[in-house]
Each structure stands twice: as structure tokens, then as C-alpha cells.
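chain below, 238 aa
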Amino acid sequence: MPPELSARAVGLRELMDDPGADRRMLDRTYQRFRLVNAIVSRPGLIYRRDVRPRARRRSISILDVGAGGGDLCRELARRLHRDGLDAEITALDADRRAVSWAESHDDGAGVRYRCAHTSDLVREGAVFDVVMSNHLLHHLAADELQELLADTRRLVGDGGLVVHHDIARSRAAYALFAAATWPFAGNLLAGSFIRDDGLTSIRRSYTARELTAVVPAGWAVRPGVPARLELRWERADA
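prediction:
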């Protein structure tokens, strides 16, 4: 029987967030994120709609908050290089384990990896053209979400974009992920946290209505597929 999904299961915790999580399983999870995110997170859409149009005008700077193993950053770097475009990409994560793994698996992408919080970058006066996150919002407590939104707004310059992507909670999303990952639980995903934590993530995630109710004015919530939410804010040109 599927779990109760009528409300966010904020009391649950993902296994990989445990400071004592098995390091081999954690490393395998970072390694397998690239495959999962290629399907679920649709990096091609992010690139075509939000990154490439800006990079065609000039060299841009991109910040990925809560970047984990950095797979999204490296994929964006690969696409930019393929198209002859230039950008400085920073992968930010507060977990040193994630940053260390990502640094050792850059594979020539040229991404800058940093272990810090958005508040640290705000204090430094950092400014980016695009600030994004992927699968971060559902990890945060209510006050942490508001701090993230305030910080990421401060981190974009004129004409800049903030776009946070996450899972949309629903019974269909839970059932689909459970069914799609079941055949790979004993092979491709074995020894990782992806299946268990993915199901937990869905239970912790927002619906579009819930997210709309808690974000400040000026943010736009957009549903997407497969079972996606997009939270956008754009700064007008001065």
C-alpha cells in the first residue's frame, strides 16, 4: 500500500543527508545521479530555455545551489562547449562530501566547486546571471526556504534569473518512480541511496498549490513533467 501523500512528510529524512551515511553508497549515489537527472530533471530544457539564450548574447555566470555531485553543472558546461558558448559555472553545496566528490569527477568540464552557503556569497557581494537549484527545496525547513529565496534574489544582477526545480508530490509521481526504479534496484541502483531517497523526496516535496502558498510575491510557480515544479523569479534590467 502506498504511503499517505496528502501532506508533506517533513519528519522524514533522506539517508544521504545523514552525516554518518556510508561513504561508498554516497559516492555511488553521486555517480548515478547523472543517469537519473538526465531523465527526471530535463537538463536539455533548462539549457535551451534559460541558459543558451543568455549565453548567446555574452559570456555569463551560472550558480547551481545545492549542486550535489555537480552532474547538472557538467552537463551545462558540455552543452555550452558544444555550441561554442562561454560561461563561468559555480557548483555550490554545503556538504563537503558532495563537493569533494564533484571536484574529483570534473573530467575537464571546468566547473568551479565550492563548499559554502548562499549567505556566504551574498556577504561577498557575488552576482550571477543565472542562479538555479535542482531537488533542493524539499530538503529545506520553512525558514531555510525563505532564506534561500531571499539570498538567491540578491545573487542575480540586472536581467538575471533565479529558477529552482523540484519534484511535484503526487500519488502518480510516487507510483511511477517506484515502478520505474524497481527493475534496477538490484543492479544499476544497487549500493546507492537513489531509490529509497527518491521515494522519500517525493513524500517531502510540495504540490504546486502548497509551494505557491509559501513563496513571497513575485515568484512564479509552474508545473511541469514528469512530476516537476519550477519556481522562477527574474530581475528586470535597470
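Residues 23-40 form the longest helix (18 residues). The radius of gyration is 17 Å.
thats it, cya
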